[in-house]
Amino acid sequence: MIKHLNGDVTFGDIFVTPPAPRNPGLGPLFNNVSCESCHVKNGRGQPVFGNTGLRSHGLIRVSDPGGTPLVPGGNRPVEGLGEQIQDHATFGFTPEGEVFLDWEEVPGAYPDGTPYSLRRPIVEVILSNGEPLPDHIERSMRLPPPVIGLGLLEAVSEETLLERADPDDADGDGISGRPNIVWNTVTSNFELGRFGHKASSRNLREQAVKAYSEDMGVTNPDLPGEDPEPDIDEETVELTTFYTQTLTVPLRLDTDDPDVPAGERIFNDIGCEQCHRSVIRTGTHELPELSNQLIQPFTDLLLHDMGEGLADHRPDHDASGTEWRTAPLWAIGLTRTVSGVQNFLHDGRARTLEEAILWHDGEAHGAKERFMNLNKTEREKLIKFLNAL
Q1: Which of 25, 115, 131, 155 could form a disulfide with 282 if both were Cys (CB 3.0 to 4.6 A apart)?
Q2: Secondary structure of 96-110 as H, E, C letters
Q3: How would you classify the pairing of strands 294-295 and 303-305?
Q4: Dmax of the chain from CA atoms?
């Protein structure tokens, strides 16, 4: 309990420009100033950039298709930018660029004539020299996901995940989930990734040290940069990792509402459960409390081709430009309660769960079509089930 509370402190620690008596090390280039600044109340981030009261929640990942990977099978950094646009800087330094976000409405209608409107992000990056990011540079807008229940997902064994993989669609059901395989610089081996929108991080420690380095410009024992001594020590990394490992998942809502189990049956019948697997058992973990637990995260932690509409055309290790890791759905109905707003999918384009479903395509095309062909009452029951998670 004490370690978790201490981790809560490090997760919320706001970094400042060095030298300083507490939490020095910010920048000189960064996107935000603490873990909690983006994962407010441990929830998902908002699609905001620049000098807002929230600073930048959103990130722009970049890569150069003609560049050289830093690690085997890895991404190809952009010269002078790396793999991420840092749009803030400490005094005396210049941000790498400025991000401008707009939205384009995409109207549509259900087969029964009910209209809907989706929105697509229009992102422009202007570099510090005043020029736009060159067209050949691959870019991908990302929002911070919630951090609840991550320790349980870390505890799912690789064997369990691989059992659910079907990269060649051997069973012919149109669903071909596969793992992302990423390079471990410590062991010099390829290993299975499971965290991040494209499953490009192997574990929660790796997720934490990358965020310190890339999002806040804070050097650490795993990513020391050129600092003779990292900005944060091993204890800080361990506490932050432990905190994200031990955040629990809220109980479900509206369990007495008969529309909720009815919506769950519809969810299963139209094929959503094929990727958003409702039940998984964890394996053995260094924290005994996470081991051998039956959990309901509604994810298979695998990559799936989600079609051209959601494509970012930026490969991420083994993940292609159209593939995304299945997002966990547990507690998704509490998004507005936690964050005050709703922004779903990797870039926050979906304002409602209905919009998120309607953006599905590729391997999820059949499930989306079956959703669209439900009557209005059935669609509402499915959404009510999701809101009860």
Answers
A1: 155
A2: CEEEEEEEEEEEEEC
A3: unpaired
A4: 65
Q: For the residues of 52-85, what is the DSSP string, one character each? A: STT----EEEEE-TTS--SSTT---PBTTTBTB-
State if pTM tops 0.90.
yes
Query: Are 292 and 284 a contacting pair, CB within 8 Å?
Result: yes
Token pair recorded at residue 25: 């090390």
Two structure tokens written together for 316: 């991420």
How many other β-carbons are positioned within 10 Å of the β-carbon of residue 100?
12
- Cα separation of the two ends of the chain: 26
Helical spans, DSSP H, in the chain? 2-12, 35-38, 150-154, 158-164, 204-210, 216, 234-245, 259-269, 335-339, 353-359, 365-372, 376-387
Q: How many helices (H) and strands (E) does the chain have?
A: 12, 12
Predicted confidence (pLDDT) per residue in 129-149, tens digit = 999 999 999 999 999 999 999
* Residue pointed to by tokens 């004490």: 2
